[in-house]
Structures are given as C-alpha cells and as structure tokens.
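<goal> How does this chain fold?
<sample>
Here is the protein in question

***
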Amino acid sequence: MPVQVRRSDVPRVEGARSERTRREATHPVRASGIHEVPTLLTAAAARRLRPAVDVRDAALCGLLALLVYVLLGQRTFYKIDGHLYLALVLDGERSYPRHFLYLPMVHAARDLLAPLGLTLYEAARLLSALGTATGMALLHLASRGLGLERRAALLATATCATMPHVVFFATVVEVHGPFLAFSGLAAVAAAALTRRPSVGRAATFGATCALAFCAHSTAALLPALLLPLILLYPPRPFARGLLPGAVTAATLAAGIALSPFVARLVGVEFDLHHSGAFATDRATTNFGAAWRYGHTLLYEWLIPMLPLSVLTPCGLLGRRLRAQTGWLLLGAIIYLACALMILGGEAEWGAYLLPFCWPLALWALRALPVRGVLLVLALQAGTAVWLVRRHDDPRRTLAYAQGARELADGAPLALLAGDDIDLQAYLLHLTDAERLPLFELARLPATAVADAGAALRHRIDDLLARGCAVLLSDAARARVVAVPAATPCGSGLLALLERSYRCTPAAREGFTGTRLFR
C-alpha cells in the first residue's frame, strides 16, 4: 500500500533541509560547537548576553584553577632557576638578561602579599598559580572568541587547565607559570584575528606576542603555533593567511627590537643579544647527539601532555582532522627543535611548550566525543597530581633547617649561603635567619678578594657581636671552589674565614659543616 504524504508537510521538510544546508555551508565546523547560538534566544539577544556570560565563565574558570593550583602548591624548588631568581630579589636586583618582566612581577607579589604574612617563596609560588589561572581565564575567552559554544569552551578550558605540564608549573616557583597569562592574551588576539582577519588585528596579535616575549623569550614562536587558526576556523584558502601572517611577523619583530627600550621604561635592563646567545651557544653540540632527540621528544612532548600527545598523530589517519593535526605537529617540531637547541635533551617537562595546551584542547574537541574528552580530563588530572606529588619532596631542605636550628641552640641564626641547599632551606624554612651571600661574593673577579673579604668579615663580626650562630655548610664550602673559573674569589674568601675565625665542625640532622667563633 503506498505511503500517503500530506501536501502540508512538504514545504516544512524542504524548508528544514534548506535551512540545515544553509547552516552547514556557513558554519562547516558546527560539530565542534563553533558559531552556535543558544536555541532559546534570538541572535540579537545572544549577542547582547554573550559578553557578560563569557566574562563570568572565564572568571569562574580562573578562580577554580587558582584554587586547585594553590592546594597543590609544592614545598620544594624545581631545579636551580627558581631559587636563583629569588636570590636576585633578596639582593634587590630587578634586572635579568632574559624574561625581564618576571623579576618585577616577583617584587610586586612580595610587596603586595607581605602584609598578609606570606614569605618571598610563598608569594612567588602564588604568582605562578595566579599567572597560570589568569591564562586559563583568557584561554576561555579565546575559545569563545574563536566561535566555540559555551559547553565546548568550558571543556576546552578544563582540558587546558588539567594538562600535567600546566599543573606542574602552576605549583612551583618558575617563570613559566606567569608566562601563561601573557600567552593567553596572545591567544585572545589570535582568536579575534581568526574570526575577522584584518591588518589591524594582525598587528594587535603581533604586539601581544611581543609583550609575551618580554615575559618569556619563547613567545617569539607563538605566531608559528597560533597563526594557522586563521586557515582552520573556518577553513580558508592558504593565501588568506599570507597578509595577516606578514603583518604579525613584522609587528613581532619590531616589538622584539624595541624590547630593551621597553625594559628601561619599567626600570630594568634587558640584553637582547644575551637572549639570542643563550638559545644558540650550545646548538651545534646539542644537535650533534642522536640520543638528545629521543629525550627531547619524550620529556618535552610525550609525557608532559599525556594522553593527547600520544593521540594527536592519529589525526593524520583521517581526512577530516589531517589539516589541524598537521598544523599541531609542525608547530611541535618547531618548538621541540628550539627546546633541543637550548636544553640538549635535559628534562624540563614541557616548560617551553606550555602554550600548546590550547591548540591541543581544540584538537581534542574536534577529534573526540564528549565522553572521550572527559576521559582525557580524568587521565590528565591523575597524571598531573602524580607528577606534582612525585616531585614535591621537601625532606632534604627540612632536615637541613632542623639541623641548623639545633646547632644554633636557640640563638639567632646566620647562614653563609654558598650552595643551592643553603639558599633553598633559607627560603623555605629559615626566613627568619640572616643570609650572607657567599656564592655571590665568590663570583666576583679575583682582584676583588680583599674588598669582598673585608665586607664579609665586617658583617660576620657584627652578627657574632649580636650573639648569632654563624654556620657554613660543607656543601657551600665545596661549591665555591669547585669551578674556580666561575667563582674566582671562592678560595680566597674561604682562606680569609679560616684565618679570621675559629671554625668548629658542626653536624646535626641534615646539616654538616662548621660554626664560626671569634
């Protein structure tokens, strides 16, 4: 029996098909939540409501991320850079030859948070958490600016915020956490450029990359990572990206060239040549060893961004994701080459590839169903907590501090800080002690031994007169003479101490060294 079709149904079906076809032609990536408008609102109402919703959601994402990062905050240092930055702050130094905005930010964090009773270490660690959380809020705005609907943008932000390398550097004292706030701002500019390419927006994007360069030099690579968005959201011919790319590159180059002058405006010195030399002076050696390539791939890409770092190459197998996957992997090659050139295979756990969190999240939203993204979130969060807890081991510095206090026997404590362990224990557990910068003095030219020794002796005499227990660890003694070329004053200062004071061996708990008496 033939199926009866009512005439009144035909226009409605054809109209629906026509409307669907029109939407798909206009918005070819609708499956990822891009360019969607809430169904219960008119387009005009959605435009009026969305900015307020976006800002509210972004603020909420930032606050939740900040809470998590603070709760996971580590009680130890990561390698040597963190406590050396803080030593510069202790000495009143505001300039650093690279990443020149970091020290002024640490100074500001310390000054603002000191009335709350936070130590310099706690203020700097909070700065890392706050910078990363601000980055997450900005990445949420960038996702919405790119066209993702609300739920997709929230999933993208959560994916970014839980990546292991993001969580790790949000919980330690390092320059990379605050840098994410600047790269997040560049992502917002990149999203605006993608939605409506223009010369002005390209210049703005280049300027935000130049500003991010002032926070970390790897921001010079951000256009290589973010400019391909122009061709993918929505798909466009390659030629459409040439002019915005050229304008971005020119603006970024001009910003980098002007960065030393910008540094002087904020009262610091910045050596552009030093940044370039730091990146290239070991390149020949590092590129020449085959084992370094595998180490860089493993420790800078595969482990820090699990599981997406492993899943991403699978996108090359399907036509739908091939362009986006190729863009991501090409960007990874560029960044990994830079990491190999500088690090030579040393594990930095994705520190230089933190800006990849957003492009990887965008890839995940297109490649995986919602359940798959939620599974990725769970795996990332578990890996992140494991990585943080595995590294967070304060026992060594805590034992050092306990031993030093016992040797002081209730007297005020003073440390001749010459090794990492001295400075770390001081910053973490002995902030009420006096710090004598032995290592900094040891790095002075050999001709400065007499003046440096006189200043050091005057300081020690004053401390002893006030009843302080002055301690010199065996680690400090060994460090300042280990490499004479790096510490030309080291042996002379130790000889002066041995001539001027009675150095009595002292060992307790995690501290071994000597105590100085008149």
Notes: The radius of gyration is 28 Å. Residues 1-46 have pLDDT under 50 and may be disordered. Residues 43-71 form the longest helix (29 residues).
